[in-house]
Design goal:
By secondary structure, this protein is of the alpha/beta class. Helices cover about 35% and strands about 20% of the residues. It has an 8-stranded parallel β-sheet. The longest helix is centred in the last third of the chain and has 14 residues. It starts with 5 loop residues before the first strand and ends with a helix.
């Protein structure tokens, strides 16, 4: 199943001192979604922001919000994001009943995604692929923006594509980490259809030009 390309700039890379203005600017520049990286300092070695920050983003968002819960217990916290998110992605490494949490997210009216860290084999996702709307392959070690793209994650992207075809499924394949026009092209060739881009968009002199380059 082929999906149209989605560009989802990561708010982690935005200028938080002028948050609403930055969000309006990136939406005007052509963003399809906004990606929100929620980190708890346990599943990943950083703390980013929580529900209140995401609610602030939602006040001016005119595109869907893609919430990535990089937290140990998404089962306890996903509901706080459900009222504002279009999609909520959790990690296969989370310390909870992953299948039940995915079902609950969908039952609440959001689409549900599953993600894995670079060190986790793609086979760990197999039990959940029939119950998700999105598979997120991290192309950096999650936790911090501005890292270099990990080319050796591309086999996981291709595995997600091949599994989707073999099982007749319809989930999107998202990549996040070090994504720019060059690595975006590499990711699309491997099977990705949803690109999360942080620094390459929010750090660009012209965000519209940066987003067009990702699409090209």
């Amino acid at each position: 199943m082929q999906h149209p390309l989605i560009i989802a700039p990561s708010v982690l890379a935005a200028d938080w001192g002028r948050l609403h203005e930055s969000i309006r600017d990136v939406q005007s520049a052509g963003a399809d979604w906004l990606h929100l990286d929620v980190m708890d300092g346990h599943l990943v070695e950083n703390i980013s922001f929580g529900p209140a920050f995401c609610e602030c983003v939602a006040k001016v968002a005119t595109v869907p919000l893609d919430v990535h819960l990089m937290i140990t217990r998404p089962d306890k916290y996903w509901a706080r994001y459900a009222k504002l998110a279009a999609n909520i992605t959790i990690h296969v490494e989370a310390d909870c009943d992953v299948a039940a949490t995915l079902r609950d997210i969908r039952a609440a009216g959001c689409t549900a995604g599953i993600s894995l860290k670079p060190g986790t084999p793609f086979s760990k996702l197999a039990p959940y692929l029939g119950d998700v709307d999105l598979v997120l392959v991290m192309t950096v070690e999650p936790g911090f923006g501005g890292q270099s793209f990990m080319h050796d994650m591309m086999p996981k992207v291709s595995a997600a594509r091949d599994a989707r075809t073999a099982r007749g499924l319809g989930y999107r394949i998202e990549v996040d980490g070090g994504i720019n026009a060059t690595t975006g092209t590499t990711s699309i060739a491997a099977g990705a259809d949803t690109l999360v881009a942080g620094t390459s968009v929010f750090g660009a002199k012209d965000m519209a030009v940066a987003i067009r380059a990702l699409r090209a």
